[in-house]
Amino acid sequence: MPAVAVDGLPDSAVLVEAERSDGPWDGWSQMIVRVRDAPVASTVDVGAVGVDAARLAFADADALELWRHEEPLDGLADVAFWGLDAPAAAQEFTGDRLTTLGDEGSYGWTDLPIRSALRRAMTVEAWRDAEPGRKLAVDFRPHSHHWQVMRQVRASDTESGTLPLGDAQILYAMTSWGDGIFPVQVDRDADGLLLAVRVTLAES
Predict the structure, then answer these.
(1) Span 134-159, average pLDDT
(2) For 160-180, how does the pLDDT look when each residue is reduced to its tens digit (9 = 90+)?
(3) 94 CB-side CA count, 13 A
(4) Do 160 and 172 touch, CB atoms closer than 8 A?
(5) Any idea of the CA torsion for 40, 44, 50, 53, to the nearest 10 degrees?
(6) Taking the domains of the chain in order of start, what are their residue ranges?
């Protein structure tokens, strides 16, 4: 999956902004990492980022060595399921209604040992697949770094969240458009210093 590395960023916090598209779909037109405020002398294409599962990450490259995407940090996992047939599945398997912000309308279980959670997720999926007409999505959620930040994303009006990792902060944000390859540009001042990093998601 394509990624872009940019140098010249400070080791302190920076502002990340998102701008809405003017089109009929109220999605993001671009996301901008603001580094410093100065007149823009040049804007240069530096590549493109590939997005899978509809989410972007802005991260320190060294900090990513600590990232655990699927392995649970505490040995636990959650299972969530939702859809037209979710109430029937909850009744069949005594699933709980989830109360976490962003999981409204979902059922499942939280804080299960990883093997138990996986068995339950597979059992619910098998029940769904036993009748092709059943409408149900199932999400197996190990308590990984990805799970931690996605809890924030689901609960956020901007579909974004941050997570400390080592000495850095990682930002996750949904593109609002789904998957794709998105161009990246950098703004620099007259001295060549980095002013901003821009990811264009849609033409405004």
Answers:
(1) 97
(2) 999 999 999 999 999 998 999
(3) 0
(4) yes
(5) 10
(6) 15-54+175-200, 76-143
Residue 152, C-beta contacts closer than 8 angstroms, at least 6 positions apart: 160, 161, 162, 163, 172
How far is CA 200 from each of CA 17, 21, 50, 186, 203, rounded to the nearest angstrom?
12, 10, 12, 11, 7
C-alpha–C-alpha distance, residues 99 and 121, integer Å: 18
Write out pLDDT tens, residues 117-142. Answer: 999 999 999 999 999 999 999 999 99
Contact 78, 112 (CB under 8 A): yes
Cβ-count burial 186-204 (b if 16+ within 10 Å, e if not)? bbbeeeeebbbbbbbbbee
CA distances 76 to 8, 48, 64, 110, Å, are 39, 35, 22, 8
Q: Which of 48, 35, 44, 15 lies closest to 194 in space, CA to CA? A: 35
Would the pTM of this model clear 0.70, i.e. be above it?
Answer: yes
Residue 162: DSSP 8-state: E
Across the strands, what pairs with 170? 163
Asked whether 194 and 8 are in contact (CB, 8 A), the reply is yes
Q: Which DSSP string corresponds to 96-109? A: EEP-STT-TT-EEE
Strand-pairing partners, residue 17, are 32
Three-state secondary-structure class, residue 170: strand
Architecture of domain 76-143: 2-Layer Sandwich (3.30)
